[in-house]
Design a protein that fits this description.
The protein is α/β, with parallel strands linked by helices and 406 residues long. It folds into three domains: 3-103, no CATH class; 157-239 and 362-397, Nucleotidyltransferase, domain 5 (2-Layer Sandwich); 240-359. It has 17 helices and eleven strands. It has helices at 3-11, 106-116, 121-128, 132-148, 193-204, 221-230, 240-261, 263-266, 270-274, 282-292, 297-311, 317-332, 337-348, 350-354, 356-359, 364-380, 386-397, and strands at 17-25, 30-37, 42-44, 51-67, 70-82, 90-92, 157-166, 170-177, 182-188, 214-217, 235-238. Strands 1, 2, 3, 4, 5 and 6 form a six-stranded mixed beta sheet that branches. Strands 9-8-7-10-11 form a five-stranded mixed beta sheet, sandwiched between helices. The protein is elongated, with a radius of gyration of 30 Å. It binds zinc ion (ZN). Residues 45, 47-48, 50, 83, 85, 88 line the site of zinc ion (ZN).
Length: 406
Amino acid sequence: MDPELLFGAALGITSPWKVEEVEFSKEDKRLDIRISFERGATFACPVCGAAAPAHDTKVKTWRHLNFFQHEAYLTARVPRVKCPNAGCGVKQVTLPWARPGSGFTLLFEALVMTLAREMPINAVAALLGEHDTLLWRVIDHYVQMARERNDFCEVRRVGMDETSARKGQDYVSLFFDMDQRRLLFGTEGKDHETVKAFTKDLEAHNGSAEKITNASLDMSKAFIKGVNEALPNAEITFDPFHLIQHMNDALGKVRAEEASIFPDLMKGSRYVYLKNPENLTKKQFEKLTTLSNHRLKTGRAYLLKLGLQDVYFATSREEGERRLKSWYSWAIRCRIDQVKKVAKTVKNHWNGILSWFDSKLSNGFIEAINGLIQSVKRRARGYRTTKNLINMAFLIAGKLDFALPT
Ligand SMILES: [Zn+2]
């Protein structure tokens, strides 16, 4: 078999296309495959499908999958057809090996997409010897194509969170389907308008803002406002994780203040107060016992933290509310400003906190995805643009079907 026929078969190239010439360059470690079409061939008009002969041609080159250590390139004279049907005009024909406007073959793009799910794009770029900007363009294309096919008609319970895009300056807001555990939408910013942008996208994908019954969020004012404006039937659940985080922050501040007054006594107490008693080592437990013999504010704040956690162990909303009420009256009278602040936050978000007993929604998996995004960001030393970050989030959590050629 001729090498030309062999490469033609391997590339899946069929009539009227044929491999005309295959050329190895040892010095350049390069394989060039030149493709042409049969004389007198006709092509389908990309607008209406009518057959038409080539009107003119233009030479183009595409990067293809490596052939062993050789970088492989396809080159072809690409025809434009002048359709017999008036109105179609002169158009470039559809090629079986590449999509319009790309400098890569479909198989090379499939490789890019596969690698992009496994490693940071700067690493993929180094591996393939291509600039990452070109790879981001490929990713953007496939993410957008896959998103066009998304159908959100069954989305009922959503969660939202923000993540920092670049050095904590730019933010993107991400919106998730809490039942399918997948990313639905991402947009720049973290204000209430992001929720509106989400509902617009939801409805563009056959979903309905009115059918959203639950929304899970942290206690950010912007998201609360956004949900109230754009998701009229959604009951808000405040993520338990965030509330406990607030309490932990307060406890940390109380401890730091007191440690500056009693440095010797409080030395090594930081991790003791971060953990629950059952998770302490023997040594840490002894430290906690010693500390509890002193009348420390930190000790009281610690008990209040455990008390707040206990609310979530109630087995019904009613019991949860009883526990939250008694926690609140304890906390608001505790004479520790930081904790009283948390108590006020609890009061202002009362129903959304208790909603958890009905919805059981928490942003745990969203936090995990956020952690992945941030870790890839660190390894990639950034994403250059927020659009790239959102596309990466879709690769990680979009559960998209890219319909890649194999
Ligand atoms: Zn036509």
